[in-house]
Amino acid sequence: MELLIRKPHYHYFYLFAPKTILLFGGLPQEAFNFGCGWGKLENIFEKQLSKSTVFLNKDIISPHYIPEKLPFREKQIEEITNGLSGVIKNSKPNNLFIYGKTGTGKTSTVKHVLEQLDAFVKKNNMCSFSCYVNCRSHSSKYKVLLKSIRGFYPEKDFLGYSASFVYEKLLEFAGKEKAHLILVLDEIDKVKDIDDLVYSLSRGNDELESGSITMIGISNNLMFKEKLDPRTKSSLCERELVFNPYNATELREILTERCATAFKENVVSEPAISLAAAIAAQESGDARTAVMLMQRAGEIADTEAATTLTDTHVEKAKASVEEEIILSMISTLPQQQQLVLYAIAQLASQKDRGLRKVTGEIEKGVLYSGEIFETYLELAKKFDERTITSRWYRQYINELEMYGLILVTASGKGIKGQTRLIKLGFDANKIKTALEKELFKAMG
After folding, report:
1. Could you tell me if residue 65 is inside a domain?
2. So what's the pLDDT on residue 358?
3. Which of 14, 299, 352, 372 has the smallest number of CB atoms closer than 10 Å to its CB?
4. Last residue of a domain, one of 284, 313, 331
């Protein structure tokens, strides 16, 4: 027989145990807000607020943060400023192409200069507008034009109109407003119909009686311009600027400045900063890698409830972010270089590859340079990409080795002829999967 007595706002319930019946009653309803708990449970996020942390402002040590001051880029800032100074004199600036490896401050520097320019022209009632376009996300002429026009006509939607119509509206805006438009095309080499885009934008000024359109192209590919059609190159009238990788000393100073405001006082040890700078300098001179290492090291210190961030935390961070850094680097490679690396990964992932020497010992997955090039040619055809010459192929192999993605050695005794032996430096299947994502996205 079951008996349940109810009173307003109170619960009576049974707890059943072998040969035992217990009756509880008279407890307020609030005591049971979380099922059959004995009280209101603490919100799981309350504990996070009470946890100790080495961070003061974690955003500052994020790879996406752009500091007000850009150490060791003063010369580049001056050159970009000089190149764009025509705007304040009501004349068209030259197109500018900026090259450099990932993490060398290209985008941050350009954005810094444009922020200064935008503030100046606004203060002095000048007619100049800038628009930033990430060509990884907007990888065709039409998408670039659509993104640009939205910046100048924010109240209108041009989706569905033809590329020629959007282009004419861009020229119309510049002419009617007598405006100087500056288009920043980041990762410009990712645009599939790049010749059409660059030629149209550079020739657009011939149609304008007033106002202008200026391009700032940013690329990780130093050979990007070589792929352009001669007709396109002749129309550019551009200046070029190369950003060199940071060295260990420069990275140490950059980290010291960031850590001073990102972490609590006297939390970060000097050896930790020095180690993160040395690792990043050895990998690629990438400031984002250095920053990412310190951010992850701080998170590890928090997990351990440590009060000091040491070089040991940086060592642990290196192990946890290495794969993330490599995959991030792969996504920024020029498409042709991605195809070369994809050929290596595809061959290395095959189980029937022979054993060869590359570091002095017999190893699996060691490939001949020639067989990689043949596979690359097949892949380029599959992805409908024009092929590079063997000279450019050798250049790409050298760069992949410099990035630490592959190991390369000359063939020794026992191998007929002169060739290079190449081995992938990381898990072939993970590299292959990451590259497939990038390459198929570029196709679509």
Report:
1. no
2. 53
3. 352
4. 331
Same domain, yes or no: 350 and 297: no
pLDDT at 27 over 80: no
Among 298, 333, 339, which Cα is nearest to 316's?
298
pLDDT tens-place string over residues 225-252? 777 888 888 777 778 999 999 999 999 9
Please choose, from the candidates 343, 347, 348, 330, the residue with its C-alpha nearest in 3D space to the C-alpha of residue 399.
Answer: 330
Q: Is 417 domain-assigned? A: yes
Give the domain CATH number at 299: 1.10.8.60
Dihedral class, residue 138 (left if φ above 0, else alpha if ψ from -120 to 50, else beta)? beta
Tokens of 72: 């060791």
Taking the model in full, what pTM does it have?
0.75
220 and 94 together in one domain: yes
Domain limits at 200?
74-243
Residue 30 phi, psi dihedral angles, 5° rounding: -60, -25
Residue 98 has pLDDT above 90, yes or no: yes
Amino acid of residue 192: K
Does residue 419 share a domain with residue 375? yes
Q: Which runs of consecutive H residues, i.e. helices, occur in 4-153?
A: 46-50, 74-84, 106-123, 141-152
Q: Is residue 56 part of a domain?
A: no
Q: What are the backbone dihedrals phi and psi of residue 223, each rounded to the nearest 5 degrees, phi first?
A: -95, 10
Region 156-177 average pLDDT: 93
Query: Can you tell me which residue has the tokens 């119509």?
Result: 165
- 361 within some domain: yes
Q: How many Cα atoms are found within 13 Å in the side-chain-facing hemisphere of 237?
A: 13
**Claim to verify: residue 233 and residue 89 sit in the same structural domain:** yes
Tell me which of 22 and 312 has the higher pLDDT. 312
Tens digits of residue pLDDT in 284-308:
788 999 999 999 999 999 999 999 9
